[in-house]
Amino acid sequence: MSLQKYQAFITSIEYGSITKAANVLGYTQSGVSRMILELEKEWNLSLIKRSKSGVFLTSDGHKLFDQIKRICNEQQILKQYIEDLNDCQSGLLRIGVFSSVATHWLPNIMKRYKNDFPNIQIELLLGDYTEIEEWILEGRVDFGFLRLPSPQKFETLSIEPNDRLMVILPKDHPLADCEKFPMQKLEEYPFILLEKGVNAEISRLFEQTGIHPQINFKTWDDYAIMSMVENGLGISILPELILSRIPYQIIAKELDTPFYRNIGIAMRSQENLPKSAKKFLEYLAYRNC
Amino acid sequence: MSLQKYQAFITSIEYGSITKAANVLGYTQSGVSRMILELEKEWNLSLIKRSKSGVFLTSDGHKLFDQIKRICNEQQILKQYIEDLNDCQSGLLRIGVFSSVATHWLPNIMKRYKNDFPNIQIELLLGDYTEIEEWILEGRVDFGFLRLPSPQKFETLSIEPNDRLMVILPKDHPLADCEKFPMQKLEEYPFILLEKGVNAEISRLFEQTGIHPQINFKTWDDYAIMSMVENGLGISILPELILSRIPYQIIAKELDTPFYRNIGIAMRSQENLPKSAKKFLEYLAYRNC
DNA sequence: AGTATAATAATAACGAATGTTTATCATGTT
DNA sequence: AACATGATAAACATTCGTTATTATTATACT
Predict the structure, then answer these.
(1) B271 in reach of chain A (CB within 8 A)
(2) Which residue's C-alpha is at the least distance from the C1' of D5?
(3) Which fold has domain A163-259?
(4) Which of B67, B86, B92 is closest, CB to CB, to A81?
């Protein structure tokens, strides 16, 4: 019961000769002869009729030929799939991303990756940290971007450990000209809180420092916050990544005690990633150009 | 590259456990574990993720699963075909027959055969000796009925070596009461010649005996001949088999020097016949009951 | 027509490769 | 702690595929 024997049988019939089939397949005549004999013995059937001018199908052989050929074809297709996977010549790559990564990093990365591996289809699933964690667990994505450390026990890669949390102010704010924004002053102005999913890093910052700002609004939309700040409704804190290209009249200031968001990649197992995904990880270096 | 390994992989995934798959397939846990490892090594891919609570697909494994499963399914179908062929539980039996066999023998044979092997589909190809020979050569039929000896070098089985050639006369013929019809008298009456294909046994009879009848008609239709004889248009010679059930008012007489038609079965190789056909040959004994 | 030659497939014997098991280990889960 | 999971090493069993040979038949050449 082996695919080699099937191929030997098929080829012998197609070339009408065991000897020719052996040459084509790189076996000896004896080898192919034995393979077919073994099939016949194993199945208790006569598959081919031998003559001194070659071989041809018996009635039973004829009945099985198509089905055996079909199996060989499917095997050929499988081999092609495998080759493609190894060459990154095909495949689907699913990645979990959150909005700032999708907006500011992925365009650069994907432009280069797609250029080198045009046949890899990429599917981006946009969500918050919690959703992305779920997708990784369930295998809905090959890997995902997360804020590190992640509560789940994933394998992780740190990519951008120093995504500074910046205070954003309207242009005419009293502290618009200070060098670094003093932590304590956060309590003195209305505050607009960015809150996405459970992993609200900014809430944690306040917990750790014991600061209690006057939270007037909470929202999950980065751009809504910037717009509100621009209009003088309050101040806020956003990761620097989000502020890469600011379309608003606002000012971003460092805090006097710096806080960072650590952005990384998480997956169930780096070892088990498909080749196309491993390659993708190498392209993360191009995120800013 | 073997189907056992494919099955091991598929089953492990379907049961979510290598150990369970091993039990189901009748291997040891170690055996199945190694099979999958060998596939992964051979393909340079990671197919499954192992854990202490079982196994599940990696991304690459997922991409190949369906195709591998498809191959296993096709293999299953093949196995079924083979089993059916061995049990005569399915299959197509093609038989070349000439008209008198089809009319007088096959109904009895087929009734019994079909009763014992209801799932074998039988295809009867009706033709003359020459056509049947061609069909056997080309493999269009598994075997065929022929008059023996056959000019082709087939393997043959004699079934009815003594199909007497009988003179047929109208009821009111002058020799209607004779015991055996004298050869020489054949020249004295108009003769209607049965001539089918090239192997006209009756023409050969005349050649061998040097008798030259007055041939008024030639036709290939047995019943047309009987009808013409009945209407006094002449006399003829027909094999006894054709006369089994005579629907005409005619008389059949033996010749004073007896001639026989030898009816048999011919095939390329009895050894290579499908089981269903071999079985059929055993049922030839039932041709007259 | 007869003979030599070439081509075909089968067979026996053998070594290499592969398949499969037993026994054991390592690691999580309950 | 007991159990269940999978991996590993070593031994054994089977299969695979080869070389060398035989047997048969078609083909070519006297």
Answers:
(1) yes
(2) B52
(3) D-Maltodextrin-Binding Protein; domain 2 (3.40.190)
(4) B67
Residue in B46, B91, B274 closest to A271 by CB:
B46
Which nucleotide minimizes the distance between its C1' and the CA of B32?
Answer: C20
The SS3 of residue A183 is: helix
Domains A3-87 and A163-259 fall in the same CATH topology: no
Query: How close is the nearest chain B Cα to the Cα of A74, in Å?
Result: 6
Provide the CATH topology of domain B162-260.
Answer: D-Maltodextrin-Binding Protein; domain 2 (3.40.190)
Q: CATH fold of A3-87, please?
A: Arc Repressor Mutant, subunit A (1.10.10)
The CB density around residue B51, as the number of other CB atoms within 10 Å, is 10
The strand pairing partners of A67, in sequence order, are none
Residue of chain B whose alpha carbon sits nearest to that of A39 = B82
A39 CB inside 7 Å of strand C: no
Q: Any idea which architecture A92-158+263-288 has in CATH? A: 3-Layer(aba) Sandwich (3.40)
Q: A271 and chain B: CB distance < 8 Å anywhere?
A: yes
Asked if residue A153 keeps its beta carbon closer than 7 A to nucleic acid strand D, the reply is no
Measuring CA to CA, how many Å separate B223 from each of A73, A95, B66, B247?
53, 82, 62, 9
Q: Which helix (H) or strand (E) holds A43?
A: helix A29-43
Q: How far, in Å, CA of B95 to CA of B112, rounded? A: 16
Distance A52 CA to D26 C1' (A): 7
Q: What tens-digit pLDDT sequence spans chain A (289 residues)?
A: 688 999 999 999 888 888 888 888 889 888 898 899 889 888 988 888 887 777 888 888 888 888 899 898 888 889 888 988 888 777 788 899 988 888 889 999 999 999 999 888 888 888 888 888 888 877 778 899 998 887 777 888 899 888 999 999 998 888 888 889 998 888 888 888 887 655 567 877 887 888 888 887 878 778 888 888 988 888 999 888 888 777 788 989 999 888 888 999 998 878 778 888 889 999 999 988 8
